[in-house]
Design goal:
Elements (H helix, E strand, L loop, with lengths): L1 E2 L7 E2 L2 E6 L2 E7 L18 E5 L1 E6 L31 H17 L2 E8 L2 H9 L4 E8 L4 H4 L8 H18 L2 H4 L1 E3 L1 E3 L7 H14 L3 E5 L3 H11 L3 H8 L6 E5 L5 H9 L3 E4 L1 H6 L6 H7 L2 E4 L8 H16 L8 H16 L16 E5 L11 H7 L6 E6 L2 E5 L2 E2 L4 H21 L1
């Protein structure tokens, strides 16, 4: 069974895919034509579901370090006292935790993660060793992050110069490398951690380099209050005034917005990175129904502390239905599946390369094992995927035509070593945080 993600033929109930040179060469129903003397590697996917790889457009892989704790503290780790923070993470710890986050995402069916945090010059190539596509940036800001969790915002130009310069250098070093598996956007951390001066410079660099910008936007009441006090407007209004609010922006969260903000975001066709599970874990729901009806484009991200895009699809669907108050055509499994695949590809500017299983596109393919009790009977494969599947049901992952996960295990890296190193790094970070 193949969920292609293509509008013309969304489901092939008994299909095949042929991959050559890292791209999809053929796809169709029934059996393929005999391959003759061509040397091929065959994967028998009978009883399984084949999908495009998920495009996870907003992650912080290193924040696996606060898994199981920060979820119950009520706010993002950077703003929360008593937990490890980015400025406290050593280079070695960053690599260990980032490798864990990338491996988790890959095993759960993400073939691309868009990741931002610290030490990206080291973590991006290390994450890519798992076989996953890694796009990202160091977080760009001009506040002193060692003081933000104490509710202190001091914008310092030298910090902005360093963080923006680091992001541009990252682009020069990595963008397009590894056959396009590495890429860089500019990650303005958030309106409250970037001065207007810095946001204008980010806009200028975006235009000069032809990049996209990703940013947290209206993620908290604290951020909204800070921007109203500092700039006399809402965060979306500020980004619009500067020239950042458009279809080149990947805006994460968009929770605390009013009707004027919704209309503004929709009119600019902003790509909203919907963090459905993470937001609701913190007791909030973004107005996704109103935003979609206003014209905003949607993609999905896991943010931090977990990386299961199947679970995120389910939370996104259910939060939309809660807002509608009933089951409607506006929120169906196909809606959130599109957000997790082609919606993410469009947000990244990669819709011609990934996001669906079509001839000519890169062979980023995920195979779910549907021979499991919670996935039988199969009447509507997509319904089973969104309502009852889990990332743990992923059996095989292919990126760029290369099998990187088989039988639910990674083929390119040592999973046990990654788990051991990440556990040690997190224990050291927490020991230092608790001693502070």
């Amino acid at each position: 069974m193949i969920l292609t993600g293509a509008a013309q033929t969304p489901l092939l109930s008994n299909g095949f895919i042929i991959v050559r040179d890292g791209r999809i060469a053929e796809i169709g129903e029934g059996a393929p034509e005999p391959a003759g003397t061509e040397n091929i590697h065959t994967i028998d996917a009978r009883g399984k579901l084949v999908t495009p790889g998920f495009v996870n457009i907003h992650t912080h892989a290193i924040l696996t370090m606060v898994r199981g704790v920060a979820e119950d503290m009520g706010f993002a780790p950077a703003y929360t006292p008593g937990v490890p923070h980015g400025h406290e993470v050593t280079e070695e710890e960053a690599v260990a935790l980032a490798r864990l986050g990338a491996l988790e995402a890959l095993l759960f069916g993400s073939t691309l993660i868009n990741d931002t945090y610290v030490h990206q010059h080291l973590t991006m190539p290390e994450m890519a060793e798992t076989g996953i596509r890694v796009w990202g940036s160091g977080r760009i800001h001009d506040v002193d992050f060692s003081r933000v969790h104490l509710a202190e915002w001091e914008h310092r130009p030298e910090i902005g110069d360093w963080s923006l310069g680091d992001a541009v250098a990252l682009h020069e070093r990595f963008h397009g490398k590894l056959n396009g598996r590495l890429g860089v956007h500019l990650a303005a951390h958030a309106p409250d951690t970037c001065s207007r001066w810095l946001l204008e410079r980010i806009r200028d660099e975006r235009d000069r380099l032809g990049l996209r910008v990703q940013s947290h936007l209206s993620q908290s009441k604290l951020e909204v209050a800070r921007i109203r006090e500092r700039d006399g407007m809402s965060p979306p209004e500020l980004y619009d005034d500067i020239g950042l609010l458009d279809d080149r922006l990947l805006a994460a969260h968009c929770i605390h917005i009013d009707e004027a903000d919704i209309a503004r975001i929709g009119a600019r066709h902003v790509h909203v990175a919907h963090i459905a599970k993470g937001n609701q874990t913190g007791g909030t729901i973004a107005p996704t129904t109103a935003l979609r009806k206003a014209g905003a484009q949607f993609a999905l991200g896991t943010d931090n502390m977990h990386a299961d895009m199947v679970e995120v699809m389910r939370w996104a669907l259910n939060s939309g239905r809660v807002q509608e108050g009933c089951v409607t055509e506006f929120w169906q499994p196909r809606t959130v599946f599109e957000m997790a695949t082609m919606g993410g590809a469009r947000a990244m500017g990669l819709e011609d390369e990934i996001g669906s299983l079509e001839v000519g596109k890169k062979a980023d393919i995920v195979i779910f094992d549907y021979r499991r009790p919670h996935l039988v009977p199969v009447i509507e494969p997509l319904g089973n995927l969104v309502h009852t599947a889990q990332g743990r049901d992923v059996d095989c992952v292919i990126v760029d035509g290369v099998v990187v996960v088989e039988g639910g295990r990674p083929l390119l890296v040592n999973q046990d070593e990654i788990l051991r190193d990440a556990q040690r790094a997190a224990e050291n970070l927490w020991a230092r945080a608790r001693a502070a």
